[in-house]
Amino acid sequence: MNTILPSVVKERLSSGEKLTIIDVREDEEVAAGMIPGAIHIPLGQLPERMSEIPQEGEVIMVCRSGNRSGRALSFLEAQGYTGLKNMTGGMLDWED
What is the rounded distance in angstroms from the CA atom of residue 18 to the CA atom of residue 37? Predict the structure, then answer.
């Protein structure tokens, strides 16, 4: 599975790079904070909201710890998406 470290995501964002980040956590989780510019699509809504996710270019999947975002990545790959990365450690590691 393609992974990316939270530190690399932070570095790329701070350099001004535009990244497509999909946060698959639930509403109450994102209420505590999200990565700036991330798109919130709860994991359970992913099948009906796939049109919001670009099929080309890099897309970074994020959740609390990396488990749900890994499942989201696998689901999207099965639908033909490419260029997906899972942010290892999720928001737990992002906040550290």
Answer: 9
Give the Cα separation of 87 and 61 in Å (integer). 6
- pLDDT for residue 1 is more than 70: no
47 is a catalytic site residue: no
Contact 4, 85 (CB under 8 A): yes
**In this structure, what token pair is assigned to residue 44?**
């359970």
Beta strand spans in the chain (E): 3-4, 20-23, 39-40, 59-62, 84-87
Q: What is the pTM of this model?
A: 0.94
Nearest-angstrom CA–CA distance, 86 and 94:
13
What string of DSSP letters covers 27-49? HHHHTT---TT-EE--GGGTGGG
pLDDT digits (tens, 9 = 90+) for 37-51: 999 999 999 999 999
| 35, 38, 63, 87: the active-site residue | 63
